Amino acid sequence: MALLGAFSSGKSFLLSGLQGGLELVEVPTADGHTADKFVGLLPSSPVPTTACPASVVPVDDQSSFDASGTGYLRVRFTDSGEDRWEEVGNSPAPSVIAAYAMQDADVTDRLRHHRGREVAELEIMLASAKLPAKLYDLPGYGSPNPVHDMIVRTAMADADCFMYVSHASRTLSERDLDLIRFLYDHYLLSGKRVVWVVTAIDAAANLDLRNIPEWKATIARNNTYLRDNFTLPNGQPDLGFIGEGFLPVSPALEARADKLGAEGAEAAAQRQRAESRMETLRQAIEDLISTGTGARHIAAVATEARILMTPRHQALTMRLRDERLEIDELKALLKSERQRLELLDTALPRMREDLERKLQNRIARTVRPFTRLSAHLHAELDDVIRATDLNRPAKANQIQVSKAQALRTWIEGPAGPATLWTEEFEGFKKDLVQAVDQVFGDKDLAGRLPGFTLDVNSLFSLPQQSRRSTTRHDVVQRAAALVGIVTPVAASGGWLYGLAAAGTLFPPAGLVAGVAALVFIGVQRRKGRISSLQVLQDEWIGAMDAEVAAIKEQFTLATGVQGTDVVDHLMDNLAQYREQLEQSRDRISERITNPENQVRQGLIDQLEPLCAEAHILVESLRALEAL
C-alpha cells in the first residue's frame, strides 16, 4: 500500500502509528521541565522531511534478520545495484534513521562508509507489525526537489492499492489536484483502490460556531472537492474512485492511549483509543486486502514462486531419470541429448528472426485504428474546451479528466487498439508455443513463460530482474528498433519497461497515464506563457493531434517492448534448458564410464521424495495463481 499526499501531510507519522511503531515519551526541556515527544519508526516533522521512498515491511519469525523492537533497517543507494541493499542494523536510534531518510539531517549519524552517498530507498523490516501489508511512504508531492515527484510516479507502479493522506488542519486545494488527478488516471486504467484518510484530527479539534470540530468540516469540504472534480461522463461522482470518502484518524491519540494503559489508567486509555479511530482504519485496510487486493497479491507472488521453482523441479526430475537408467538406455539418451544441443545451436537464430517478423506484423495490425483517434478526440472535446475557462485550475482539471476517460473508452473499446492487442498478443503467444513445438517437440519449454498470464489489476507491476542477459535498457532499445522508432522517449529511464515489459501487463492502457502526465505538464507550462483564453483554448485543441501522435508512438513501443520481452524470456528459458542438457550429457557420460557408481542408489533415494514434494508444491502454486 503506497501512502501519497502533499509534503508534511503526516504520512510518516500515520505509517508509524498504523504498524504500532509510534511511542509517546517524556523528554526534558531546556527550562528544566518535561514535554511530550512522539517517536516513530520513521521521522516526522511539520516541515518536509522524507527525501526518499521508505517502506515498513512485516516479517515473521523465520526472517533471517533480527526484526524485533523497532525493526531492522537497510538502505539502497543511487550508486549501488538495483537490488543491492546495505544493512544498518536492528532498532537504530531515531537520529540514525533520520540521517538516511531526511534531506537536512546530520549525515554523521550514518555508518561511516554510508556518508556522502545519496539514498535511493530505505526499508524497515518489522516483526511486530499490526497490519499484514508493506506500507510504502512516498516523498510528498510538491517537493522543492523535482526528483521527488518523479520518484512518486515511478514507485506507484509497485503498489497493490493506495492511501491518500491529508492533514486535518488543511483542506484539499489546487496544490493537491495534480497528484489526485494523476492517481485518478492510474485508477481508471488499473482499478487499484484508494483509501482516503484525514490524519491528526487531535490537532484540529476546535469547535466552530455550530460546535462542530474543525476536522469534521475539513472532511466535508474534502469529500465535496472529490465529488466535484472527479465525475463520470454522466456528471455523477465516480464513487469507485472516491468510495466512502475520507476517514478521520489520530495516531497521536492512540499512542497516548498506549501510554495511559501502561500507567494503569485503562478507562482513559480506552476512551483515547476509541477517539483515535485507528482500528477503524486498520479494519478498512484489512477488508480491502480480503476482498480482492490481497488475493491478487498472493496470486502474483505464487506466479513468481512457480517461475523460480519450475526449472529447479525439472532439474531434479531429469537427475532422477538419469540415475535410474541402464547402460544401453544411457547411450541412446546421450546421443539424443547431443542431437538436442546441436538443434538448439542451429534453430534459435532462425526462430527469433521468425518470431520478431510475426510480432512486427501483429503490432502493425494493432495500431491501424490510431488513424481515427484525432477525429474522435476533437469530436468529443473541442466544443467542451471552447466553453471552458482554462485559466481556472478546477475547470482545466475537468478537461484533463474527460480526456483521460475518452482515451480509455476509445482505446479499450471493441475496435480499439487495446482490444486488438489483446487478441494479437494471444495469437503471438500461440506463435511462440507453435514454434517451440515444431522445432523441439516440447510445448512445455514455452509453457513456462511468465508473460502468459494477463491481469489488468497488475497493470503497473514492475518485472522481476531474473534474466541473466537482458536489461531494461536493452529491451526498450531492441523493441524500438523492431517497430522502427529512432529515439524511444522512455528508453533511458526504465519507465516504459515498467509499464510494458511485465508479464502481467496490459500495456496500451498503462502508457496513457504516463503520456497524460507528460501532456499535462506541457499544458501547464503553456498556461504560464499565454494570457488570452481563446489562444489558450486553440492551443489545447491544436495540441491534441501531437498528443495522438505521441500516444501512438508510445503504444507501438510498449507493445514492441512486451513482445520483445516475451521472446527474451523464451530465449532465456531455452538457454537454461541448454545448460540442463549439457549437465545431463556430462552426467550420462560419467555414468557410462563408471556404471557401478556406489552412490547412485543413495542419490535415487534422496531425489524421489524431493521430486514428489516439488510436484505437489508447483501444483499448489498453480492453484494460488487462480485466486
Q: What distance lies between the first and last C-alpha atoms, to the nearest angstrom?
A: 20 Å
For the largest beta sheet, what order do the strands appear in spatially?
A: 6-5-7-4-8-1-9-10-11
Radius of gyration: 28 Å
The helical percent reads 55-70%
Described by the principal axes of the CA atoms, the overall outline is globular
Question: Average pLDDT across residues?
Answer: 82
**Strand residues, percent:** 5-15%
Structural class, judged by helices and strands? alpha/beta
Largest sheet: 9 strands, mixed
Task: Give me the count of strands.
Answer: 11
Question: Which stretches are poorly predicted, pLDDT < 50 over at least 5 residues?
Answer: 450-469, 489-530
Please tally the helical runs, counting DSSP H or I stretches of 4 or more residues: 19
SSE order: EHEEEEEHEEHEHEHHEHHHHHHHHHHHHH
Annotate the secondary structure layout.
Elements: E1 2-4, H1 11-18, E2 23-28, E3 34-39, E4 54-58, E5 72-77, E6 86-90, H2 94-101, E7 119-126, E8 135-137, H3 146-155, E9 162-167, H4 174-190, E10 194-199, H5 214-229, H6 239-242, E11 246-248, H7 251-262, H8 266-276, H9 278-324, H10 327-366, H11 373-386, H12 393-411, H13 417-440, H14 444-447, H15 472-483, H16 495-500, H17 507-529, H18 533-593, H19 600-625
Helix pairs in contact: 1-7, 4-12, 4-17, 7-8, 9-18, 9-19, 10-13, 10-18, 11-12, 11-18, 12-17, 13-18, 15-18, 17-18
